Amino acid sequence: MTTSDRVKELVERGRRVMPGGSSNMGPLVHPGLYLASAEGAYVTDVDGKRYLDFLGNWTANVHGHAHP
User: Fold this and answer.
1) What letter does residue 27 receive in the DSSP assignment?
2) Which residues contact 50 (CB under 8 A, 6 or more apart)?
3) Spatial distance between the Cα atoms of 65 and 57, rounded to a whole number of angstroms
4) Is the pTM of this model over 0.90?
């Protein structure tokens, strides 16, 4: 995966304001993945790529993202 300029910008911003550059464990699993939105079992990154979220935010979202 190539890292977009937008992701590089977000990585640097995160490192300036949060320990380790993130508020969760996600970067340990997939460094440089920044999500823009989520719905059901899918998440979309800031570059518009869509992923199936197998982690479910590590059990915090057992009903999926944006459950009605």
Assistant:
1) H
2) 42, 43, 44
3) 9
4) no
CB 57 within 8 Å of CB 49 = no
Q: Which residues pair with 65 in a beta bridge?
A: 40
Instruction: Round to whole Å and give the CA distance between 50 and 41.
Output: 10
Q: Confidence band (pLDDT; 50, 70, 90) for 39?
A: confident
Q: Which residues of 16-36 are buried (b: 16+ CB within 10 A; e: fewer)?
A: eeeeeebeeeebeeeeebbee
Phi (first) and psi of residue 57, to 5 degrees: 55, 35
* C-alpha span between 6 and 18 (Å, rounded): 18
Two tokens, residue 11? 């990585």
